[in-house]
Amino acid sequence: MNIVDFLKERILFLILSLAVLMFSSLLLIYLKVDLYAIIFIALLNLSSLLIYHLYDFFNKKKYYDEVICNLEALDKKYLISDVIEEGSFLESKLIYHIINEVTKSMKDDISELKINNREYREYIELWVHEIKTPISSCKLLIENNKSDLTDSINEEVIKVENYIEQALFYARSNTLEKDYIIKELNLKSVVNKVIRKNSKILIQERIKIETKDLEKTIYTDSKWIEFILNQVLSNSIKYIDNSKSENKIKFYTRDIGENIVLYIEDTGIGITEKDVIKVFEKGYTGENGRRYSKSTGMGLYLCKKLTSKLGLGVNLESKVNKGTKVAIIFPINKYFIEMQ
Questions:
Q1: What mean pLDDT is predicted for residues 290-318?
Q2: Sheet strands (E) in the chain
Q3: What is the 3-state secondary structure (H, E, C) of 279-308?
Q4: What GO molecular function annotations does the UniProt record carry, in alphabetical order (predicted)?
Q5: What letter would DSSP give residue 179?
């Protein structure tokens, strides 16, 4: 708030005040009042007018400057009602009342939304838990009735299981900070667990797995990193190049600066250059997703979202007909190392 804007807002009032003062002075002259008395009255009126407006300006400026300063200091601007106070003039009282009413209404809506989101997440988690029973029954029936048909059914069951897991982790992704435990993990054990989970389809698709330099210690949540690696591996399996005599997926690491970088590299169909920059976008399936497989475009999006929340990094490089390489970056946690 500056003096120019303040005066512009009151220009009509100031003009009328000066007009009334001039008219009063002329009237006093007409009535033959002493000139010194007229000058004294005019100066008294001008002084009173000036003092009133200066006081009003500095009083309002102090209040508004304090409001703006508090607003700029807040990360969450909607909390402004918690840090401002009611001013001494009418406008400040109205503003204070409006801000409080708006904030209260917004907080009520946010509370309702949080409740709805929590109920939705709880429902998804319950649904996933319940649906695991018929899936397990299907797997048992398949195991006891081996045939080409049941093998095909098993493929579809595995896909359903992966999509269900994806839905569960997506529902939990917005509350990740309440649902993870950072601890010391052996990277090789984590990778082997994910490979074993996909062993049947890897054997069926005749995909060779190579691992190298995985005896590394990482610090993250086991459940979430297994999900991330499983999504990457599932994508590599999904987009294998059937025209090649041998398909391969390699897991290996490199120490780069203060990071351990895990690479998952395949010899699949690859991704076009225009799609590479968008693969982590929500729902983006790209040319391969439309041409070769019914993709949801959620797998890599979730990988990006979860790695970010876990304090990890993820990058992807790819060339058409050459393959794709995904890098997951684990910062070396010096605090945990020093605590050992």
A1: 83
A2: 183-186, 207-212, 217-220, 247-256, 259-266, 313-319, 323-331
A3: CCCCCCCHHHHHHCCCCCCCHHHHHHHHHH
A4: phosphoprotein phosphatase activity; phosphorelay sensor kinase activity
A5: S
